Amino acid sequence: MSSQGQPAKDTVRWGILSTARINRALIGPLEASPRSELVAVASRTFDGAQEYAKENSIPRAFGSYEEMLADPEIDAVYISLPNHLHCEWSVAAAESGKHVLCEKPLVLTLAELYRIEAATLANSVTLFEAFMYLHHPQTRRLQEMVRSGQLGRLEKIRSHFSFELPASKSDNIRLQADMGGGSLWDIGVYPVSFSVVMADAGLPDEVSATQSTGDTGVDIDFDGEMRFANGVVAHISCSFRQPLKMEATLIGNERTVTVDEPWKPGAEGKESEVHSRGPDGEKDTVVFPAVDPYRCEVAAMEACILDGAAPVVPLTLSKRILRTVLALYESAESGRPVVLSPD
Prior knowledge:
By secondary structure, this protein is of the alpha/beta class. The protein has helices at residues 23-32, 46-55, 65-69, 86-95, 110-123, 137-147, 183-199, 293-307, 315-334; strands at 12-17, 36-42, 60-62, 76-79, 99-102, 127-129, 154-164, 206-213, 219-227, 233-239, 241-252, 256-259, 272-277, 283-288, 338-339. Helix 4 (86-95) packs parallel to helix 5 (110-123) and helix 7 crosses helix 9 (315-334).
């Protein structure tokens, strides 16, 4: 591991931009990796950053985001700010020459995505959206199963993510419309991204959706359907008022695969399983070791920065996910199907 103040030849020196709760999922993997070094955290106040740094054994604290981005001893930043701030600080980080791992959703509009795309190209940095599950061996194996024809012809995808967020917590950022709140933006992007990746046919041709809106003006229940050019139909659902539930199913004309832990496989130190059923009812189970998906995500960033690897979640994929989400929202608000133009 490189010593602080020396050029990092074989490690990535990280700074965390914000003191959000979700940081806890990444701090452990950063500290455990021999190719990463967590060196700093930034907050809006120095006292807040210093307290957080002390609690999490982070060497340095910055009292502003700008100060961290100006530090030449930081190679990459993890951005876990509220959704509406992702574009501003991703662009600022890229323009400071920092590589960026930004929480999902990366952005809320196509104009924001184009800004990020331009900034990364102009400054030759890696930036990708933090869909940790897409880096996990379980997801990679599912892709292989579909592409190799083990399911026959993929016909349907069904996926869901829900948890209970009481209406009494109206100050929660997930319920704030002006901060990019809503169940689809927060957790629905998992089923949407899963559908786009597994269908493997680019953008859907057409989407339709319905939503239920809460008192703060954001969707608290959302259901959507996507139809792809290769005939795959994907159904997604998400909710802030249903019990915790995460599941995904891939239905082929020869086999059906169910995934019990699609979004956080291995995150709690437990093995994950994928169950396959054939036309005669025979069952097959593939067990995956307890690999932390956040560690997989960190390793992917390390590979991009240190080895020149291509991102697992390139901006082209983020753009497809974003356009699909925007079309789903448009359909839910208009009450009509929405046809998407090609990539």
